[in-house]
Amino acid sequence: MKNIPKIHIPDNESEVVEFKSTFNDEVIASLVAFANTKGGSVYIGVTDGREIKGVEVGKETLAVWVNEVKNKTAPIIIPDIEELCISGKTVVLLSVDEYPLKPVSFKGRYFKRVKNSNHILTASEVVDLHLKSINTSWDAVIDPVHDLNDIDLEKVQTVIESMKVNNLTINEDPLSFLFKYDLIRGQDITNAAYLLFKNKVSAFTTIEMGRFQDEITIKDSSRTKEDLLKEIEQVLDFVKKHINREVIITGEARNIQKWQYPMNAIREIVINMIIHRDYRLSSDSIVKVFDDRIEFFNPGRLPENITVDDLLNNRYRSTPRNKLIADLCKDMGLIEKYGSGIQRVMANFKDADLPAPRFQNISDGFMVTVYNGKVVEKVVEKVVEKVVEKLSDSQQKIFMIIEGNPYVTALDISSQIGMSHRKVQENIAKLKEKGLINRIGPAKGGHWEVKG
């Protein structure tokens, strides 16, 4: 009689645990999802509700199952397999470690594990997973369409000269410089080299810019398809053209110019938008200037393991989407330190006594919205009209934001006004007590009703 170990199974399915009543293709899909994530185990003979059904295991059963996994996966994965005795019944445990060179496929499809379920990877996720597993990024991949004839070496020389001004020792000629930064290999150029130094305009880098009177009326517009470094200045010039500038007379030789927005923060946002854009996506970057705000939209959402809250509270490890582009821009002095940009932007707006910018994932991209203070002025006017009892400044701001967007979340408000999520919830509760707002529907999917 076989000596089968007795063991207790986990209480629930999770990111690393799956229950299956029988061995089938779904088991293999789960093993592939585990291999593409953090590894994990499938318990065969256990229902989704954790009921121990057990399985019949013959002399060749386990070998047949392992061979089936091998034949249906690429690259081949070979799971560890073990018979267990649970509640007097036989359960088979199949386990895999995280695979070092991803992604692993099952019948040509790719899966990842998210919480307690398997998700099919999109084409871009498949590419990202592979690039991460070989510790590279898309911009470091050889450009299959363009070559050295598409590069402007004078632009490379201009970058070299600018880096020398920053006290960096650069002795290389333009071609050697490109080799040094791994931007070309042999006669081949990388995606980064093309985007940074292309000699002709192209749709790959399109940025649409507009000055809006309202949501649909455009007063002025512009478009750029230049190289990335030139685009930084073009976007900043467009923004400056359409925002106010105050000249403060100091009595000194030079007067002080004060922009409607802190320009150091705007520059940081624009640089990050251009450097971290996902250039594989067909959508364009978009900059919209309104009377009371500027919206910066960029193709490419935050990485899956980073939330907006992580971003605002600096609880993340910075991993540039385009490593070669980011590396060169850092040496040029455009980036001060990886992962510190958001904190500087928030600090700049706080110092300028302006509302905190709003950061959000939207569709296939990421958007930053900055406000110039007019929204706060409107808050005071409208609340005074509607409310007899005086509200605090924070309550006034929150009330106006909710009035302008009934579907806004407490987390969104937190990012807009620079207040902790807990404090926002406390102020919302006070507005409810005063009878000014009411929540209709659940926390997710519901909306606010303004009653003041």
Describe the fold and architecture:
Mean pLDDT is 88; it is low at 375-388. This protein has helices at residues 25-35, 61-72, 123-133, 153-165, 174-180, 191-197, 228-241, 263-275, 308-312, 323-331, 341-351, 374-386, 393-404, 410-417, 421-433; strands at 17-20, 40-44, 73-74, 80-86, 89-96, 105-106, 109-114, 117-120, 184-185, 188-189, 207-212, 218-224, 245-248, 256-259, 285-289, 293-299, 358-362, 365-371, 437-440, 447-450. It has four domains: 17-134, Methyltransferase, Cobalt-precorrin-4 Transmethylase, Domain 2, CATH 3.30.950; 140-200, no CATH class; 204-371, 2-Layer Sandwich (Heat Shock Protein 90), CATH 3.30.565.60; 374-450, Winged helix-like DNA-binding domain superfamily/Winged helix DNA-binding domain (Arc Repressor Mutant, subunit A), CATH 1.10.10. The radius of gyration is 28 Å and the shape is flat. The strands form six sheets. A six-stranded mixed beta sheet has the order 12-11-15-16-18-17. A four-stranded mixed beta sheet has the order 1-2-5-4, with helices on one face. It is 35% helix and 21% strand. Helix 12 crosses helix 13 (393-404) and helix 13 (393-404) packs across helix 15. The protein is of the alpha+beta class and 452 residues long.
